Amino acid sequence: MRPSIEEQLQGTCRVLETVVAPCVNDPMARTMLDGLIANLRMLTVALPAMPSFLQQDNETTAQLLLVLTNSLPANLQAQVIDTMNKPDPDPTDVAALDAYNTSLRNLLAQAVCIEGLSADQHRAIVQHMSERASRVPMRYVATSPSPPSSVKT
Amino acid sequence: MRKLIAQAIPSAHNILLSNLVRSAGGLSRENWSVDATWTDDTGSHSHPLMLMRDAAGTLLNTEREREFSVLKALAHTDVPAPKVFWIDKLGSCLGSPSVVMERMPGHCDYMVLNGSASLDVRLTLARAFTGLMAKIHAVDWQAHGLATSLGLPECPLGKPSKQVQPEKPSLQELAHWESEYRKAQLEPHPELDYILAWLKHRAPAAEAIVLVHGDFKPGNALVDGGCITAKLDWETAHLGDPLEDLGWVTNPVRKREHQITGHWERREIVAAYRQLTGRTVREADLLWWNVFSCWKLSVIQLTAVAEFVAGRYNRVFQTPSWLYRPMFQMMEAAETAEVSETAPSAEIERSLP
What is the pLDDT of residues B48-75, one digit of tens each? Predict the structure, then answer.
């Protein structure tokens, strides 16, 4: 379907940058507009990457939970097993992928704080989290503040 | 504003306000500049003012009363800070809690240490920032009554008062920011929980209890003619560990704001601070505060995310995943530094975006 979602987002950024932004003279509004445009540009790249990111993250998070399972208290272990036994969400259903991701990460948040994990388990945790951080499609886009003024900005 | 002035100075009349402009910056509150003139029993007055007002949505929940009491105390010290005039604690005059202070001369530029000025000028300024930090940490907070208005560090992590560890303000700061984290949390963040557990387990003791600025950076200062004319934004000031401020400025993720590559880096900043204060500054402790700084920054960003989602904040932030890897590397370095006091920052810096 044309224009595609990406084309529409990119076109929106172009119009905002070339038509709207030059007419915004208020410094506060302009700073916010610049930030919103930068974020929209980030989303044009992040949006199509989200389903595959979530799918991969669900797989690797589940693998890490399995590595930790034996060290977990019984009730948390049971929750992990229960979640793992559920059927995988439809890979084309982003909302379902996201909901499953939240379930897995909720369990992981509890599991990584358990005392007495082995050095190997800690290494696996840090490796998983570091690799995930490098893959996350949605990232904060820093924009420069307004030019220095004679007062605190 | 007229109502506030009239309440503060009952004899004031002919109160005129002009040139009201909202500054573009100010992520945690609204900053307005305004010129005020009035006449009272003592004569005619004219003041350039800054009004700091709580915004509807913010990425930093702070207290105007705290800022007001600190600025009042600093008026009796050699720390350059604006003279504070009035506070509207409940927002009955200005719509939300506000503080009004003198508008100081100078420019605010968060990248001033890496701007267009010559290296000599920037190095002099960099040294002045560290000198200012030492000066703030030397404020006699007991003599100025700040223990009453700010409170002494105690009651870490919800322990009963009998188990307080006043030598560990690190735990109190952690408890405060954990509370902010839980308020802002919209989804699970295993990374932040894992790092939080590490921070709790390794919280360092303080060499001293000092007045901590809490957000010490060039972006919170006014500079005029190569000199710092005022240190601003005292709303997060508190009594605590001096390494908290030092950890904020030596944090590798803020390097471009605080350091001058090849000339004024972590090693030079720490050496200058040690010389100025006579404090030891253990590398492992400083690394703990570096990790804490990133963790706190993460919580601030999550607060902005929550406020944006709630429709109260107009800038878009994301989950701060870019901070995770530097934190993991500093955690590893802190454990190594327990044995060796070598600054291991090069590897951390290479991992930054």
Answer: 999 999 876 655 556 788 899 999 999 9
pLDDT in tens, B102-130: 999 999 888 999 999 999 999 999 999 99
Reply yes or no on whether the pLDDT at A19 is more than 70.
yes
What's the pTM value of the predicted model, to 2 decimals? 0.88
CB-CB contact of B228 with B196 (8 Å) = no
Structure token digits, residue B294: 């990133």
Q: Residue B91 is encoded by which pair of tokens?
A: 């927002």
Question: Could you tell me the pLDDT band of residue B163, with boundaries at 50, 70 and 90?
Answer: very low
- Say whether B105-153+206-281 and B2-102 share the same fold: no
Residue-level pLDDT at B321: 95
What is the C-alpha to C-alpha distance for residues B111 and B99, in angstroms, rounded to an integer?
Answer: 26
* CB spacing of A151 vs B23 below 8 angstroms: yes
Peptide bond into A3 cis (omega under 30): yes
Residues in A lying within 8 Å of B, measured between beta carbons: 27-28, 30-32, 35-36, 39, 102, 105-106, 108-113, 125-126, 129-130, 132-134, 136, 138-140, 145-146, 148-153
User: Domain for residue A70, yes or no?
Assistant: yes
Closest CA to B292 of B209, B186, B169, B187: B169
Q: Which of A46-60, B57-71, B334-348 has the lowest mean pLDDT?
A: B334-348
User: Which residue does chain B place closest to A128, by CA atoms?
Assistant: B191
For domain B2-102, the CATH class is alpha beta
Mean pLDDT lowest among A30-44, B161-175, B303-317:
B161-175
Q: Residue A146 falls within a domain, yes or no? A: no
Task: Confirm whether A150 is domain-assigned.
Answer: no
CATH 3.90.1200.10 assigned to domain B105-153+206-281? The reply is yes
CB contact under 8 A, A112 and B190: yes
* Tally of domains within chain A: 1
Strands B43-54 and B98-102: antiparallel
Give pLDDT tens digits for B233-282: 998 999 999 999 999 999 999 899 999 999 999 999 999 999 999 999 99
With DSSP H G I counted as helix, E B as strand and the rest as coil, what are the percentages for chain A, rounded to 5? 75, 0, 25
Q: Where are the domains of chain B?
A: 2-102, 105-153+206-281
* DSSP states of B92-152: TTTSS-EEEEEPPSSB--TTGGGSSS-HHHHHHHHHHHHHHHHHHHTS-TTTTTHHHHH--
The SS3 call for residue B235 is: coil
State mean pLDDT over B153-178. 68
What sign has the CA pseudo-torsion B253, B259, B261, B263? negative
Which residue range is the domain that position A119 belongs to?
5-135
State whether B23 and A133 contact (CB < 8 Å): no
A123 within some domain: yes
Chain B hits for A146, Cβ within 8 Å: 24-25
Task: Say which residues have a Cβ less than 8 Å from residue B136's Cβ, sequence separation at least 6.
Answer: B79, B210, B211, B212, B213, B216, B231, B245
